[in-house]
UniProtKB/TrEMBL annotation:
PANTHER family: PROTEIN ARGININE METHYLTRANSFERASE NDUFAF7 HOMOLOG, MITOCHONDRIAL, PROTEIN ARGININE METHYLTRANSFERASE NDUFAF7, MITOCHONDRIAL. Arginine methyltransferase involved in the assembly or stability of mitochondrial NADH:ubiquinone oxidoreductase complex (complex I). It comes from the Eukaryota. This is Protein arginine methyltransferase NDUFAF7.
């Protein structure tokens, strides 16, 4: 989903705030006199309250005044012209899918919740990073119209939002329906900070994360060649205080270590084939030495560790990018670093150039997301007996966006006259991840 022409027909996404030259001038404050891990650099570059990319204002999150009437558009060309006009008129860098396809995108999520929710207890929904509040309003509208009255009347919808300005926008959006107001609240805090959650909640609940994983801080590890040990990457300011460089240190950080172990990157076997493979790698690394770089979703790991601790009976719906085009940075799961100024977008080839004036967003490895989810639920163990016959604590499934919408949504509502349907045809690089608790633990 991008605001400029790409190789693939993606819909515009992420450029959450555009920094002015003056704001960018002060951006070197995101790193102090001491080196920081890459995840801390990224967190500051995006979320620093004064110098971070999308902590400054809410205007970059697009809000459509009216829902798009897809049935009145002739086809793909007409739809793309419509989008182009919207972007030109608003100078907005991105519209979320839930905004472009309102109310139908949120209605599909609400339908997925209603099909599996336990209505013997009051429905409670948490949304992490609620944007403009369009998802919250759409879900509450759907439940108000389609669920039994007692479900709507007793429900609670809590948005956990790190941006004060966005929190206010969400209150205004949801508040358009007066009956929603007492059921909705915004908690302005970092969802990955355990201290903000209070006591453990034992009741079933739902957690929604739409385009959240792509902006969570990641770490970076580096190896000189194919057989060298992985090292942590740190960022430090150079003597001119205007530029940064990387430092490489032996792996010691606990989050990085756990993430590497979850991926089984350091898995060793003593089999003959493994020994042969190691020998070949050793020879190859000497003939063609090639540095290795790997990006780790440590922010995702930290967030899911907290969520599983405080909401042990949560059901999770997450949607994000499984692939990003035109990524210039090296390394597995490397991010796209992009900024938009004067109506045109620019991609960087170095994440350290993102000093508060560029978005940094990552593709989601859904296979790894599932492993992290199982690990945080307490089922996947890093050490000890891997032959345990205990069942998984989560039932999980990853669906293409088109499959999710066909199952839970109303695709006819987003179809143009000639049959083109952007919600089904254009989102080839996005997926939904669903995870619910199970009692099969014996």
């Amino acid at each position: 989903m991008f605001s400029r022409t790409r190789t693939f027909p993606f819909i515009p996404i992420a450029s959450k705030v555009c920094a002015s030259p003056l704001e960018a001038f002060y951006s070197t404050h995101i790193v102090g006199d001491k080196p920081v891990l890459v995840r801390d650099f990224i967190h500051s570059a995006l979320y620093h309250p004064l110098h971070g990319y999308f902590s400054r204002r809410s205007g970059s999150v697009g809000v459509l005044p009216n829902a798009i009437k897809f049935n009145q558009l002739q086809g793909r060309k007409a739809y793309m012209r419509y989008l182009d006009n919207i972007y030109r008129q608003s100078d907005i860098s991105w519209f979320t899918p839930v905004e472009l396809f309102k109310p139908w995108y949120a209605h599909a999520i609400a339908e997925a919740i209603m099909r599996t929710a336990n209505f013997s207890v009051p429905l409670k929904i948490y949304e992490i990073g609620g944007g403009s509040g369009t998802c919250a309003k759409g879900i509450m509208d759907y439940i108000m119209l389609n669920a039994p009255a007692k479900v709507y009347n007793s429900m609670t919808y809590i948005s956990v939002e790190i941006s004060p300005s966005l929190a206010e926008v969400q209150r205004e959006t949801v508040g358009e329906v007066r009956s929603h107001i007492p059921k909705f609240r915004v908690e302005c805090r970092d969802a990955s900070d355990r201290s903000g959650w209070g006591n453990v909640e034992q009741q079933p609940c739902w957690v929604i994360m739409l385009e959240v994983l792509d902006n969570l801080p990641h770490d970076l590890i580096y190896a000189e060649n194919q057989i060298s040990s992985w090292m942590e990457v740190w960022v430090e300011r150079q003597h001119d205080h205007e530029t940064f460089n990387e430092l490489y240190k032996p792996m010691q950080d606990s989050l990085i270590t756990r993430c590497v172990e979850i991926m089984d990157m350091d898995k060793t076997n003593t089999t003959h084939s493994s020994a042969v493979s190691t020998t070949l790698k050793s020879v190859w690394s000497k003939v063609y030495p090639k540095p290795r770089r790997c990006w780790l979703p440590t922010g995702c790991l930290k967030l899911l560790e907290v969520l599983h601790e405080v909401l042990p009976k949560m059901s999770l719906i997450a949607s994000d990018f499984s692939y990003l085009p035109d990524v210039k940075l090296p390394g597995e799961r490397a991010p796209l670093v992009s900024t938009k100024k004067d109506g045109s977008s620019t991609d960087y080839d170095n994440y350290m150039e993102a000093k508060g004036d560029a978005d940094i967003f990552f593709p989601t490895d859904f296979w790894l997301l599932e492993r992290i989810d199982h690990y945080c639920s307490g089922w996947l163990k890093l050490h000890g007996d891997h032959t345990s016959k205990k069942g998984k604590k989560r039932r999980t499934i990853t669906l293409e966006t088109s499959s999710f919408m066909e199952e839970f949504g109303l695709p006819t509502k987003t179809r143009t006259k000639d049959g083109y349907n952007p919600i089904l045809d254009d989102f080839k690089n996005t997926k939904f991840y669903l995870s619910v608790p199970t009692h099969n633990t014996k």
